[in-house]
Amino acid sequence: MPTTAPAFADATASDSALRRFLHGLPGVDAVGLEARAASLGTRSVKTTAKAYAIDLAISMIDLTTLEGADTPGKVRALAAKAVHPDPTDRTAPRTAAVCVYPDMAATAVAALAGSGVKVASVATAFPAGRAALGVKLADVRDAVAAGADEIDMVIDRGAFLSGRYLKVYEEILAVKAECGSARLKVIFETGELSTYDNIRRASWLGMLAGADFIKTSTGKVGVNATPANTLLMLEAVRDFRAQTGVQIGVKPAGGIRTSKDAVKFLVLVNETAGADWLDNHWFRFGASSLLNDLLMQRQKLSTGRYSGPDYVTVD
Q: How many other C-beta atoms are found inside a 10 Å radius of the C-beta of residue 284?
């Protein structure tokens, strides 16, 4: 059975072998993890470094609309904002991607043609993932056929929480096979996994199955990205690369709304995984509302005045 990490082939040979491997990972010191995340969050970033961090954060955003009321017009407007986040300042960097449902992927692809902004599409019966595998794979095929550059899939949390790890692993493998050249982000919905140990296990499971990114959340539940669960996932990708040579991206999603929050996450990246991840090829924010605050802080740094929300577009 193929995997992105041949060194771990024995770990994925059977359900029992995968269980032994995942449950053999070191347990998470919850108090220590949360204390380190809180400590790194106190780092002060000022002046030039702050301006650099704001632009970097803008370039890492997956600008997202995932609502039942989405329309082609809304997607085109979001695409325009992704290309020129601040119409009054063309030096503002573009966002990394626009993320939509599969039926809106073609609209986003047309609107972003030639811009360099990627089109990401959620799939696999997002956000709950409650569908047969054939339906999930058809969802992926539709998005890829429409031109999506990236696929954001959700894992079967019911299977994971009941210990059917091989089912989750094989489903990720099957989705990865349908992605072709599109990069695959695997969403764990960390708020439903209950424990840090489960988040560590899910991270390794996703990486073993060939994820290009591991992602915290859908943004559709009460608990989404937190500094602690993101720190844990950053440790996982760091350790995975140290053992395999394969670099995996990380995407915290949901609940990151202010520039101050974004800078804290960038500090986590730098201090945990390292500078190699400080690039939108390896780190993303799934947080559309964050962009407006970043733009307002950017305007304040350049003009000395805080313009307020009336000076940015409402998504």
A: 27
